[in-house]
Amino acid sequence: MKKNGFTLVELLGAIVIITIIALMGSVGIGAAKKGINEYLWKNNVELIESAAESFGNDKKSYIKNLDANINYCTIDNKKIAPCLKVSVQTLINRNYLNTKETIDEYNGKTNFKVIINKTKDKKNNESDNFTSGYYVNNAYVYIYIDKDIVYAKYGGL
Description:
44% of the residues lie in helices and 23% in strands. By secondary structure, the protein is of the alpha+beta class.
């Protein structure tokens, strides 16, 4: 007698194998996406710090004349003075940092430019995205001078 199809056990076995392969693939894709987002975020931090260094070079004499007792920062457990603390939003507003990313509206402004940290989860409320670190406009960069060279270090929220 000739067999005309697959048995139920054969079909279930095929479905189980396909499901296992799909699960392994989705885990791999999730890990790759996370790695890509971390890589992109590191590049964004470098761009932010580079923009802050340019800003610092333009404000070099101002930074040198800051009161070191008041205007200092702690970087890698070292107190550095004088140090200027600027927000990422300041760098955007003064055209030191450009971004193509925008949100429709924020604080009454339309097409508001943002820098996104995709290693953070996006919230439903735009205000929460600013406080959670998804949008890093409110984050700070520390600008300081050592041996007449301007340095910048991203400090986060």
